[in-house]
Amino acid sequence: MVIGRDQSCEINLTLIPDIKTSHLSRIHARLTLTDSGLTLTDLDSTNGTTVNKVQIDKETALQHGDVITLGFNEFCILKEDREDATIVMGKLNMKDWNSADSAVDIQGFSGSQTVIRQKFELPHGWEKAEDDTLFRAEKYTPAKVAELVSNAAQKQQGARAALVISSGLIESEVFLLKPVSTSQHWKIGRSPNCQIRIPDVSVSTIHCYLIVKNGTWGIKDNDSRNGLYVNLKRQTKCILQDGDKIRLGSVEMFFRKAKSQGA
């Protein structure tokens, strides 16, 4: 995985908030994940690459806790040894390195894409989420989320809620939720056995559970490595409201629900 500030890089550091780009090369370094572990190679960058304050000139094996410096940016390698191993780079100068706020998925970041804004009517039983200023500057506006839900709902009738993925490898995918009983739960995680599968290294095997009981929706963390966040606040469990923004590791999504069970 190539790291740098060029749009072709699998890990495009210019897409990460607060990154200092002035001393980063367009193609700066490469991370390689093999059966024996993670390695880092400098790609003839102008200002070099260091591991634990030592400049490297060849492929270098990385260990848990190693500090990488790229330009004026420092990162720490965090590696889980559990079966559902999650590998992340944590930005330094953070009080809590375990926080998903400091996590960078080593699978990289996809470049931003142009969004053509167009009004789409939601299907019967749905209503627009409140235009919260917290999300106003984002690509996934309430209108964009409404468009994705509308398109998906036309193919599958009777859904009572939906998760709209807004980042990561399956960005723009919509999971429609159609309970078959008054009390039901869905597993969300990286495992193929999850009803809602998120193929992302920052997401645990079974990261959390989405729950509905008598029309009330909630979400519960499953002791995940990178945590569960709802509207930017870390949660162990909470009730979900229409339009809530959820983050699992580095993957973000919106929760939408139908206006009423009888709609």
Automatic annotation (TrEMBL):
Transmembrane residue ranges: none
FHA domain location: 1-56, 186-235
UniProt xrefs under CDD domains: FHA
PROSITE patterns: FHA_DOMAIN
Name of the protein in question: FHA domain protein
Organism of provenance: Oleiphilus messinensis
